[in-house]
Each structure stands twice: as C-alpha cells, then as structure tokens.
Recover the amino acids of this structure.
C-alpha cells in the first residue's frame, strides 16, 4: 500500500518540526513523507481508558467509527517514570491466531502512519506518559501494513521533540517471512524484531496459527537467521504458553533444538484468559520447568510478568467485542 497525500503528518505542538524522508535508496515504496504543523490524528479523542496496576489501556475513536487500542506499560515498578507504549498497526487482524482476541475480530482496516504515531501523542498529552520504548504488539500484524509501519518508525525516530530511537522500537510479527526479509533489506540493524512463534513444531503451530501453512517453521528459521541484529542483540521469540498444548518438557526441548544457530531470546507468556476461548493457562510450576529446560539447553529465556490483565490490555487481549459483534451483524 502506498501512502496517500492526505497521510502527511501534521504535528500540533511544535510548528518548527519538519522532517522530509528521502526514500530513493530504501527498499520500500514509500513516497516522501513529512512532518509539519498541526496533526488532526493527534487529537483523535480518547474514547475509553482503563487502568490496572499502573498499566493504562486506552482507545482513540477514529472518524470512521472504529477504535485504535494502545497500552501504556510501566517499565519496572508501577510508578516508574519511563513507559513502554504498545501500539496497534491495524484495526482487527486478518491472521486469525486462535488464542488471540484480536484475531477473532477479523481484519477491519490498516492504520496510517499518522494514526500509529498519534497513539504516542495521545499517551503523552492525555496520560502524561514519558515513552522510552515503542513495541508494535497491539492490534494487527505490522508486516501486513509495512509501508505505514516503516513510515511510523521513521517518524518516531526523527521526531525532534520526543524522539524514540530505532533501537528502542520493536516490530512484532506473526512470522511473515517475506515481511521479515523486506524489513531486513532496510538495513536498520538497530530495529528490534519479535517473532510470535508459540509452538515447537509445525504440527502444533499449524493448529493455532494459520500463517504456518504458508510460512512454515523451516522458512521462518531462515528469515530470522538473516535478520540483521546489532552486536549483542537478539531476536525476541514470543511464546504464549497454552496448557498441555505447547507447554510440556518435550516441547521445551524441541523448541531449544529449533532455536539452535539463532541469536534469540525467548519470552514466555502465560496465556491471558479471554472469554469464549477453550485454552487454559499453565500453572507456575509448568512454566518454570519450561524455562529451566530452555536455559539448560543454552537458550536465553525469561517469563513475562503479565500486566494489564484486568484491563484486557495484556498480550492477545486487545480488541473491542462490540466491534466484533457489529461486524458479524
Ligand atoms: S496474535 Fe497477532 S497476528 Fe495473530 S491474530 Fe493476534 S494480532 Fe493478529
């Protein structure tokens, strides 16, 4: 998708800001893109917000009647000044992962670069958030909306007033190999990549992630291996633990074997319960054992402490049930 003229970013609080992006040498179809004065998207109203243990989930109402969901996550202690902002790149998602609330919405539309960066603006203006990191882990598959996502990364990085360095930005993908390769060709060694793997083998992955039918794990392995990462960096492997489906010791051993030869760090995420889904969350002992097996095999692994579960702002929980119902009607 190419960016339209109407997508030029207009920034309301700093009339001096003006950035042009020369794209001639980049492996993307983006046209020149500029930041100048006044940004309508920055004022998209915050329609709802919910706080849980310092985590703030908020929604901005779009002009076409949908909602953009974002989550402000404290770094470290609840009252820590610096925050990580989890942004959405789409409304809904076409990828249909069976454990994910957003996947159940189906795809509604892509967000523009302005709407993506506007989430950070709303977080700062409405909630006073000091944003240190940006993660594309909200609604949507970022690599299905790559032009706008790449433009948004540039806008974050080159913002004169509130820059977010590329090394502090992470793109999370369902494992779309062509998109990872395209991202690689940008040559941005300091842009973080996270891959949502969630299974130790093709059989299990295909059950829960339809992408695996077109982008199986051997191809994904190759795409991850070729992703440029800075000196001591790693590709983050996200692994949602689903009771008895992918959380057993044999699964951990198989996962460790699969990751051999890759510079990766595994983020173990206990599944966040969502209404109407048949999965269950493993107990702590199972999760600890899974982590231990990975570490004994020489694989970096940590557990994500789930924040925002009560606010439905935790991993895989974004998505507006009302929009889902409206879409079905
Ligand atoms: S896990 Fe990510 S890619 Fe899969 S359906 Fe959910 S939002 Fe889409």
């Amino acid at each position: 998708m190419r960016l339209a003229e109407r997508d030029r970013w207009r920034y309301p609080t700093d009339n001096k800001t003006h950035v042009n992006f020369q794209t001639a040498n980049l492996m993307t179809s983006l046209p020149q893109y500029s930041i100048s004065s006044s940004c309508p998207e920055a004022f998209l109203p915050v329609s709802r917000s919910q706080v849980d243990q310092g985590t703030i989930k908020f929604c901005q109402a779009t002009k076409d009647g949908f909602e953009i969901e974002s989550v402000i996550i404290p770094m470290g202690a609840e009252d820590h000044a610096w925050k990580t902002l989890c942004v959405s790149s789409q409304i809904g998602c076409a990828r249909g992962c069976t454990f994910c609330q957003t996947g159940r919405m189906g795809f509604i539309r892509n967000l523009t670069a302005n709407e993506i960066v506007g989430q950070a603006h709303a977080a700062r203006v409405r909630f006073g958030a000091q944003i240190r990191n940006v993660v594309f882990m909200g609604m949507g598959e970022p690599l299905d909306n790559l032009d706008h996502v790449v433009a948004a990364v540039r806008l974050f990085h080159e913002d004169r007033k509130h820059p977010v360095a590329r090394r502090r930005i992470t793109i999370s993908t369902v494992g779309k190999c062509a998109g990872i390769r395209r991202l690689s060709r940008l040559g941005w060694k300091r842009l973080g990549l996270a891959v949502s793997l969630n299974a130790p083998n093709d059989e299990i992955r295909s059950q829960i992630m339809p992408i695996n039918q077109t982008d199986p794990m051997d191809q994904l392995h190759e795409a991850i291996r070729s992703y440029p990462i800075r000196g001591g960096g790693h590709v983050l492997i996200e692994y949602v633990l689903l009771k008895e489906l992918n959380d057993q010791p044999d699964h951990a051993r198989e996962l460790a074997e699969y990751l051999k030869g890759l510079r990766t760090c595994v983020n173990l995420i206990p599944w966040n319960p969502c209404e109407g889904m048949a999965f269950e969350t493993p107990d702590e002992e199972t999760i600890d054992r899974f982590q231990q097996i990975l570490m004994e095999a020489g694989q970096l692994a940590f557990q994500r402490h789930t924040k925002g579960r009560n606010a439905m702002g935790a991993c895989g929980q974004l998505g507006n049930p009302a929009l889902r119902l409206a879409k079905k009607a």
Q: What stands out?
A: The mean pLDDT is 83. DSSP finds nine helices and 15 strands in the chain. The chain has one domain: 7-328.
